[in-house]
Automatic annotation (TrEMBL):
Residues 29-146 form the HD/PDEase domain. It comes from Anaeromicropila populeti. It comes from the Bacteria. CDD domains: HDc (cd00077). This is HD domain-containing protein. The lineage of its organism: Bacteria, Bacillati, Bacillota, Clostridia, Lachnospirales.
């Protein structure tokens, strides 16, 4: 997990997180900070274990840490958060010594993480997309009624 720790200490990651936390400090709905990133990573890892699919743990954590960073660009009206996350992720991943093949797989997972997750798929991107949805505790949220998520998508009980 050395490279994951390098991501966590990378100046571009730290600056993006600082900006993201600032943009979301008054946000009433789900936030996208470190707790969300770790929830996504841990749930994706659990899903891969439960389905007996070997997925590299470092790649899971790399995607989870980077998949929503681009929200800072979305909040600025520059681009979608997926595109912004890729823009931010590429130099971080190179600096943290991920191979071109690994970077391609991580970027692909970031690009597709908002696609409606179809349970029981087995790629890195599928696990991240499903974990991203499962990470939300809608049943505890005071904003559930006004949330833009479709009712059928909301997690109204513990699912795992």
């Amino acid at each position: 997990m050395e490279r994951v720790n390098q991501i966590l200490k990378h100046p571009k990651y730290l600056e993006a997180m600082k900006q993201l936390n600032q943009y979301e400090k008054d946000r009433l709905y789900c936030k996208h900070g470190f707790q969300h990133q770790m929830d996504v990573a841990r749930i994706a890892l659990l899903l891969s274990y439960e389905r007996a699919v070997k997925v590299d743990k470092e790649k899971i954590y790399a995607v989870a840490l980077l998949h929503d960073l681009g929200r800072i660009y979305e909040y600025q009206g520059k681009c979608s958060h997926e595109s912004g996350s890729i823009i931010l992720a590429l130099p971080i991943l190179f600096d943290c010594n991920f191979s071109e093949e690994e970077i391609h797989e991580i970027v692909e997972a970031i690009a597709g993480h908002r696609e409606r997750s179809k349970p029981h798929k087995s790629s890195l991107g599928d696990f991240i997309a499903e974990a991203d949805t499962l990470s939300r505790s809608c049943f505890l949220c005071e904003m559930t009624e006004s949330c833009k998520w479709e009712q059928s998508r909301k997690n109204m009980e513990i699912i795992l």
